[in-house]
Design brief:
The chain is of the alpha/beta class. Helix content is 44%, strand content 17%. It has 19 helices and 21 strands. A six-stranded mixed beta sheet has the order 12-13-14-10-15-16, with helices on both faces. The protein has a five-stranded antiparallel beta sheet with strand order 20-19-18-17-21. It has a four-stranded antiparallel beta sheet with strand order 3-4-6-5. The longest helix is centred in the middle third of the chain and has 34 residues, at 219-252.
């Protein structure tokens, strides 16, 4: 089964991935496909349930060192030598095996399936003990090896002798930039002021960038430096040999370690799923083989607490559903919720619900949602939908769910409705469970008349003109077009005519004769010397105003004394251009209404509930 991109399941996978500890586990989960069999789907569901049971009991699986275990294992296999830091992490990883095994053995009654994963975990106590004995505080412990201990003591003695010699030179601080010995190019030196460099016998090892300091190795410490470099080289060789031996011990056990790594990476993924389901307050869902889709108060996992619970059922009394209702009422969210819950169930994930939800095992999940217009393929929106639906129709099999949004839209309504009904009938006869949304009355009636179809509507609050996003099963939704038009102050006569046309189809076809108008070209701002927003003077009255626009017959409209007046263009005189008065982005329209009216209009445009209530109040007062 392929999960459609419109289901937005990738967002769920991204959230689960954040909870996976290991790189290997993240790779496994990225490659995980929907369950190909009923048994696999059920197994995944049971494993997630058991992980939640372990977590709910207050246990934490000790996945120590697992994060980069795959990376370090690959390095060992390729012949690289692990660093002390990497060996410590790998030792933690190996040491976690018996602890994890012990946890699941004690809690076998809570997680019997998961306990089987850890039965084959091996113990590598000799390796972990050797790593712990050899490396302390991310460094090789000199006491862990006789040769290393000897050479470290030799280095300490050489450095001590070196400091005694340097003390004699450091007493001559007036010649030095800094009163300490500094290591340059593996040799200890004195930071001498450039002008005093001839006061010291020795070799210049390095100069500062500005040339003000010369780093000199005194002749008295040259031999000590040589012996120190040799000793440190010997120490590095011994440490490399120790790291190689520890890495080699691990390499000898790689086949068994790989088996354990595979097991723990799978557990890592399962527990990440469990953590995600707990986070969204998910409850296990039943997976059935009877093509029954039951959602019991299911919440969309990506919408959080704001999600409105969804209840629906298919495959019991009816196999298909047609959802109607206003735009932005939540119809598409219903389709996406169904798709997402089906996809999650086939990956062992479950949403928040009331416990009686049941998801069919699916071989196919198909969706046609959104604007399918494609400039690259020269497809219109309708053509894009049809191309998508053609692929859906070609997948002619049982055990699948098909979700179609606004089926038949984007073309001539009668043809679109007829085509939609034909498509739905073909999908129904192929055995698919179908949910479609529509505004078309013919499709609504088809669903009402068909014995294996059910209707559903999205709840709508007529008082506030807002959707409730709740699915009402066995109801037919209306678009509420007439109601909204009336509330938005479309004249009642027009709304009444529209209602009559809808029922009688008796459209006004009489031809009206219009008197010929004299051709004239109205004067525009580009033609005249005035522009909207200019400050002008009404010369006959001596009053200032704001120019609004040109009218007919040499007249203009000017805002004076908080009202719009019409006067002759020759009666006004320009005072200040609007460019000098207002910024470039300024909304000039607000100059010609009072502040309260301007704010009210803005609130209406942005959909303010308070403004709509005031609008309804005004309408009632007019009645």
């Amino acid at each position: 089964m392929k999960i459609p991109q419109a289901a937005e399941f990738e967002q769920i996978k991204a959230q689960v991935k954040q909870k996976i500890i290991s790189d290997y586990g993240q790779t496994l989960f990225a490659q995980e496909r929907p369950a190909a069999s009923y048994e696999t789907a059920n197994k995944r569901m049971e494993e997630t349930k058991e992980a939640i049971a372990i977590l709910a009991a207050g246990h934490a699986v000790p996945f120590m060192g697992l994060q980069h275990a795959q990376l370090y294992t690959d390095k060992i296999e390729k012949g690289f030598i692990l660093t002390p830091h990497e060996l410590v992490a790998y030792g933690d990883f190996l040491r976690s095996f018996p602890r994890i095994k012990q946890l699941f053995t004690k809690n076998r009654s809570l997680a019997p399936k998961l306990a089987r994963y850890v039965e084959e975990l091996s113990e590598f106590s000799s390796i972990t003990a050797q790593i712990a004995q050899t490396i302390r505080h991310q460094r090789i412990d000199p006491e862990a090896n006789r040769h290393l201990r000897k050479i470290v003591r030799q280095i300490d003695q050489l450095e001590s002798d070196m400091k005694k010699v340097f003390l004699k030179f450091l007493s001559q601080s007036k010649f030095l930039q800094d009163n300490r010995m500094i290591r340059k190019n593996e040799r200890y030196t004195l930071p001498v002021r450039a002008e005093w460099q001839h006061q010291f016998k020795g070799s210049i090892i390095e100069r500062s960038n500005k040339g003000s300091t010369v780093f000199i190795e005194p002749d008295a410490v040259a031999r000590l430096n040589d012996r120190l470099i040799l000793a440190e080289g010997e120490k590095t060789a011994i440490e490399y040999q120790i790291l190689a031996e520890l890495t080699g011990m691990i390499a000898e056990e790689l086949p068994a370690i790989y088996q354990c790594l595979d097991c723990l990476a799978v557990l890592d993924v399962i527990f990440a799923k469990g953590k995600f389901c707990r986070e969204i307050k998910g409850t296990p869902v039943e997976i059935n083989q009877n093509e029954r889709l039951v959602l019991d108060h299911v919440k969309h996992p990506l919408l959080g607490d704001a999600a409105v619970p969804l209840d629906l059922s298919l495959g019991i009394d009816t196999r298909c559903m047609v959802i109607t209702g206003p735009n932005a009422g939540g119809k598409t969210v219903v389709l996406k919720t169904v798709a997402l819950v089906c996809a999650m169930a086939h990956h062992g994930l479950f949403p928040a619900h009331h416990g009686q939800s049941s998801i069919p095992f699916l071989k196919g999940l198909s969706m046609d949602i959104g604007d399918q217009q494609s400039l690259a393929n020269a497809l219109s929106t309708f053509s894009g939908h049809m191309a998508n639906i053609a692929e859906i129709l070609a997948d002619n099999q049982r055990n699948r769910v098909v979700l179609l949004d606004e089926i038949g839209s984007g073309t001539e309504p009668n043809e679109g409705a007829a085509l939609a009904i034909a498509i739905m009938d073909a999908l129904y006869r192929s055995g698919a469970l179908l949910i479609a949304t529509t505004h078309y009355g013919e499709i609504k009636q088809y669903a009402v008349d068909h014995p294996d179809f059910q209707t559903a509507a999205m709840a709508f609050d007529p008082e506030t003109l807002t959707p409730k996003y709740r699915l009402l099963v066995n109801q037919v939704g209306e678009s509420n077009a007439f109601w909204i038009a009336e509330k938005m102050q479309i004249p009642q006569t027009i709304v009444a005519h529209a209602a009559a046309y809808l029922s009688t189809k008796d459209y006004p076809l009489d031809k009206k004769t219009f008197a010929l108008l004299k051709e004239s070209r109205p004067k525009s701002e580009s033609d005249g010397k005035f522009a909207k927003g200019d400050q002008v003077l009404a010369t006959d009255r001596g009053e200032k105003g704001i120019f609004y626009q040109y009218a007919d017959n040499g007249q203009v409209q000017v805002w004076i004394n908080e009202r719009m007046e019409v006067m002759a263009e020759k009666r006004i005189q320009l005072l200040i251009k609007q460019e000098e008065l207002y910024p470039a982005e300024y909304d000039l329209d607000q100059l010609f209404v009072d502040h309260q009216t301007y704010k009210f209009n803005k609130d209406i445009l942005r959909g303010s509930k308070k403004a709509y209530k005031q609008l309804r109040k005004q309408a009632k007062e007019r009645e």
